[in-house]
Amino acid sequence: MPGRNIVNCRVVYHLSTDWNQGGRNVIFIILLIGLLAGCLGAIVGLGGGVIMLPGLQLLAGFDLTKAIGTTLFAVIFTSISGAQGHYRAGNVRLKSGGYAALGGLIGVLLGSYVFAKYLSNSFTILEISLGIFFLFTAYRMGRDTYLEFSGKRGTIAVDANKSQNESFAPLFALGFFTGCLTGMLGVGGGFIFTPGFMLIGGLSPQVAVGTTMLAMLPISLSGGLIKLYQGFVDLPAGIVLGLGTALGAQVGVWISSRMSPILLKVVFTILFAILAADYLMPYLLALNF
Asked: How many domains in the chain?
């Protein structure tokens, strides 16, 4: 397949992931990726997966399937830490999170099956899917940055009464779709759940983020363990990565109270656009128009 040959020519900074050879360097790189993901995720409201996955693939030399599985396993740590903190702060709607989590559990089972049965042997489909995901992420972050910079975000009202209308069907559907995407790509929870909770339940941004962490906990736990059982998780790397995100999130919270996140959002909009191009351009160039 021409796309597969082109992808193999992509520049990857490869470091051996054999824990018996150069293990200290690999551990340090993976810990650094986790710290960065947790820190920047807390500052700009990102899910750590969108940073961890390309970091593992491009910096630690993981193949794509192993990077996806290890990333999802590491999100377990992020979800536990985030859900606990937001629950203490009162930023969680248990019913909304529960309905979405129920749909997400079914979705992640289906997504994990599709991943193992079809996608794990097709790097072409995975690369294109991730490219589209990162393109959407760049668009979303760029749009949010523009709204914040122009002051238009503050004009978007949130219906406070709508938060009392926690309908099962739309929240279950939201969770099911998010779970499917998470099971297949290992990323995507926060960028779908957070705006979804705001639109469906009328939740404030803070409560939407907290409820997202709660909903992602059973999804990441079940999805991560399924990926582990399927053999798509580097367990030592997943543990180091998860601990790194937990520590980095605490640093990110401290930094976020002392700086505006707009500049970082601009940087990450550009970064995600570059990642999207890196995944998609080889296939676009291979097309014969």
From this structure: 1
